[in-house]
Amino acid sequence: ALVSLAAAPVAGRRLCEAQGLRMKLAALLRDAPADDAELLLVAVKVVSNLHLVNDDGTEAPWPREELNAVRAGLARARELPRTEEVDEASEPLADLASRLLSSLPSGEDSAVAAA
């Protein structure tokens, strides 16, 4: 449900502004057990939905601290070792995390974008 809710621009913005969702996702990506690829994949999907363009075609800025934390979490998720036990979820996890990392602005940009 959170994956879908984050895709709605108004709900995603509210979750980020009022609840600190991006930092919570960054912490989850940083601290989740390496062998729980399914949990990490859900977190990456939520980040992906938060990164979608708003209905009016604009992208709201992400604070630099949040962007850097999310980028670090995505980098960790992308680099986790793949095992037979979690291979079903680890391949899509690495792929989506890589695509998100390449689409997010670098932390050096002053105006960083997403929902």
UniProtKB/TrEMBL annotation:
Origin superkingdom: Eukaryota
Record organism: Alexandrium catenella (Red tide dinoflagellate)
Taxonomic placement: Eukaryota, Sar, Alveolata, Dinophyceae, Gonyaulacales
Protein name: Protein HGH1 homolog
